[in-house]
Amino acid sequence: MSTAAIKKTTSKSWRVVDIVVAALIAIAGGVIFWAWSQGAAAVSGPMNAVYPPLTGLIAGGWMIPAVLGMLIIRKPGAALFCETVAATGELLMGSQYGASVLFSGFVQGLGAEIIFAIFVYKKFNLPVALLAGAAAGLFCGLNDSFAPWGWNIAYAGGDKLAYIIFTAISGAIIAGALSWIATRGLARTGVLSSFASRKAATEPVFS
Amino acid sequence: MEAPNHHGAAGAVRPAAVTARGWGWRHAGRAKPAVHALDLDILPGERVLLLGPSGAGKSTLLHALAGVLGDVNDDGEAGDSDESGSLLVDGGSPRGQRGRAGLMQQDPETQVVLSRVGDDVAFGAENLAVPRDAIWTRVHEALADVGLSHLPLDHPTSALSGGQKQRLALAGILAMRPGLILLDEPTANLDPAGVLEVRDAVARCLDKTGATLVVVEHRVSVWKDLVDRIVVLQPGSAADPAVLLDGPPDRVLDEARTMLAAAGVWVPGYVPATRPRAGDARPGAGDLLLAAEKTAVSRERPRRSGFRKIPPVPVQEDITAQVRAGQALAITGPNGAGKSTFALTLAGLLEPVTGKISATTNLSRGAGIDPFRWKAEQLIERIGTVFQEPEHQFVTGRVRDELLFGPRHLGHGEDRVDELLERLRLTPLVDANPYTLSGGEKRRLSVATVLAASPQVLVLDEPTFGQDANTWAELASFLSELLDSGTAVVSVTHDAEFTAALGGTELKLAAAEKVAR
Amino acid sequence: MRGNNALLTRANPLSKLAAVVLITVVLALSIDWVSATVALAFEVLLFPLAGLTLTLLWQRGWPLILAAAVGGWSTSILAPDSGRTLVDVGIWTMSEGSLETGLGFMLRGLAIALPAVLLMSCTDPTDLADALAQKARLPHRFVLGTLAAMRLVGLLAEEWQTIGMARRARGVGSRGSVLQRVKATLGQSFGLLVQAIRRASRLAVTMEARGFGGGTRTWARASTYSVLDAWVLAGGLLMAGLAVVAAVSAGTWNMVWLGS
């Protein structure tokens, strides 16, 4: 009869439930984003036709997995992991960006991850969430405007700047604020009882 | 502690013994312990059925024996979980012996890990570091033991029925050669055919390996002949021991028949009393409210391929049915026949592929003939639908707000809310978050929220799935009342006793195509 | 991939992935229609080897073509201008130069998107996970945990529909003003998140109960390299190389950081 050895876990290392839930949140984020962009096509179509950098305003949805994943799991690497998994999901669903979506996802996740790392993975309140979302948005804008695989690489300088500003704002509001609100709501349903975020509903907003 | 390579004598399984001495467990973040001071001894090879009201800690015990408690909830932050006493499998801690026990839970979808049959069965053996050749031998053996050896190893697991998925999970457990098999309500989400499939597979495996069995289940008749001991648990405390009754099945069931029935256990041969129909239950009586004419139904929307729209393949065709006030319509049939799909189409939530659903003026009252085209506010006043999973329908964060949601949108009906709260015993829960309720409470809440808008037609999708006997009786009686007051009730159900309790007509849907058995 | 017996299904997923990444990076370096067209030509030739037919490609690929066209359009109206001005309306200026850039952008977009489609048609996700864990030595808990979660995607998509219907049955109008629809979608998203977390938690228990998470494990399916993988890598290098050479000789090679 064989038995498996159990790794000793500390509170900063990932348990199996952290991995599986983080991966599924990332994938759910992809499903939601896909459904959302179907509905938003009526808005993004004209945006693109008129002044394409405006699409940066709805880019925040892209980055929800990074911030939401970290706010729920609260372990180092969660933002990076979730965003990369979400990008892998996009790749599997046949993204128009091809394999480059993996690079973009990594970069965006990195933006959020850096903010959480600056706060030593101890602060998960609203200002941190907003900053993380903005950072992810900033990195998204930079990635799209300056990386070789970026979709906006050929825009003129002024348009690139506009796009980056829009993505940063969109990241802060959609990826940052919405994820923070969602986490509080999820904590109230009791579904986060296995995670470090189980008390998120009653945590102070600003400190 | 490295995993030793024990692939020993082919097929040899050492049955495990379980010893609990004053064992207690409190989940992280909860105030009350889930299990308190449990004393229990299970001998190797024994087969035990665990019964008890919800809250007695049965699932917690099973999870602990499987070694999956503790890592999940222990987080080093305030509100740690708490263990007292000892719980030993073969004299050692379960956590250090994962793979010694195999655990099966009730949701078939999350018992499957990988997308190909062979890979999923091999998963457990891989984790136990069994050498590669031995793994595939075990896989073939395990699939044969559960009756799935006719499936090719690369058969997609998503194409399996619920019963097949649970049997696949059993095969995956058997590939680990466990000495202890733990089943946590394994047949709660299955249709009657699936229930027997799984029970028979378990019986065969136990006969072959002689492993110890601990099963938790509401429906005693399914397992009664298989087990040699029934243990009844209760929420323990300083005054009450955790084990209420313990003994051979016949003795326990005789002694505690009334007590078990009161706790909601489905004691064999006992169908809870429900309120009989008082009104006119003849088919054909009552005003016609909804009619389906030669409808074909499907859950999928037309797919877009390039510029063309491809209509979906219907799961069931040529259905004709009538819904009349004060009448019950039961939609029955095997899994996959499209019962839920048809019910949702009837309720105006899905569009029929061909044919049409029409509402008479009695029901539509000016909203139009096709329920699918009604606005959501118009729909809830006329047809109320209760989904199989209550959580899908929660839209607010408080029980009271849930009940007020419909009336607030309609602008009337808020006075009914208190009455409904009383009638469905939800008053003590008014400020709770709907997601935190127990299974039975969620079911009652979802029925109440739909009724708050006073619809004339009520559609229920598998309302008695996995319900204990008390909730079942309550629901059947409540619906009987509604029928007598003129509401039409359409239910999708496998439950023959439920259909009998409500009377009315039955719409039998035939199986669509042959699913790989 | 069930039913797909094409040649490329037998290659190791890592070599296929490496080839795809190589082509993506090389094509990304320049926006020009020559390198993109050369790459596209190769990719079309590879379809049968991946088990794709033109009909299948059209079914899966038409959103990509649309997206590439949209990207091409945006680029032509926003790229810095050169050559004769064709259209000048407010902030929109399209010149010969920017139109050429836009076209190149569209073709390049397609040339980058298609290899991923090719990859996914001839690679089973479980085999990819095996390769990543056994050959690339990524931590197996993360790789397999993610693989198991990915299996539930289809379920989640179905659940999205079900939740939408369930909420309509409660009176949540998904038609109506924009604000109403946004609120409805947000609520639906929340519902899906709850279900996702519940399912994932149960799946994690299933995996742990089967011994997952320990230090050592064996692999029932061996991920191996073969001569075919050498051919795949060589093919990728050849495709990338030819695209560059063709573009440089045609004079259209246009390194992204130098051009604009």
From TrEMBL, chain A:
Q: Which InterPro entries match?
A: ABC_thiamin-permease_prd
Q: Which superkingdom?
A: Bacteria
Where is the chain membrane-spanning? 16-37, 49-71, 128-149, 161-182
Sorted keywords for this record are: Membrane, Transmembrane, Transmembrane helix
Q: Which Pfam families match?
A: ABC_cobalt (PF09819)
Q: What is this protein called?
A: ABC transporter permease
